[in-house]
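Subject: DNA damage-inducible protein D structure
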Amino acid sequence: MSQELNIIGPNKAFESIKHIDANGVEFWTARELFPLLGYSRWESFEEVIGRARKTALNSGQIVENHFRDLTKMVDIGSNTKRAIKDWKLDRYACYLIAQNGDSKIPQIALAQTYFAVQTRRQEIFDKLPDAEKRLFIRGEVTSENKKLFKTAKQAGVFNFGLFNDAGYKGLYGSSLSDVEFKKGIKKGELLDRAGSTELAANLFRITQTDEKINKDKIKGDFEARRTHFMVGGKVRQTIKDIGGELPENLKSEKHIRDVKKDIKLLKQGNKLLLKNKKK
């Protein structure tokens, strides 16, 4: 399944301008997106947005669910501001914009691949049973954690135990050992015993810390730890703002290795049933 969901394309550029609103929903803004798609004039890009909106309408979509009007105030000098039009876009809207762009522009061709893969990835993920969702997110956490530790090492982190714990303190409000004690789980089992919601919160903490260290060119062990703690805290605050359950209060689940065994046995059973039906 992980191979099916593999991301290809210029994901770093598009993910770097992704925002998360107060409800935990991802979005992009058209003003930030259009330079990445190779457009130099806003007026030309608005024409593409118009075609994309029409495509959504013709597909039976509620256009406003994917394309939201935004108004931004920008400085024009002499302490004066003026309002400019913008759009709040979900991933589907970005996909439609890419599909309606000029495919001769290299950035558009790349974006078409990227957003098509990401949209398909989400469709597949939404259809997965809860156990497979958890298994998939756990794999993502492992992969992204490796990237974060590589980034941290390049930033000058030498005490990875303290660096790791800083992220947990930000997200959980206490150290890793205290969280493990509260949940009644063994040392080193937190992520392996976390459910999908808790894993998703950690995945967001990890990926956003990696992005911020790279984007802000954070250097030094202390500064990297402080960044990890700050990002974890912001994820925690977002959970509070949307009325979600804080991660330290989420119950522990069956160990992920047992989930893997269950899925393997289930698939073997399905194959056996299918084989018997053919006889």
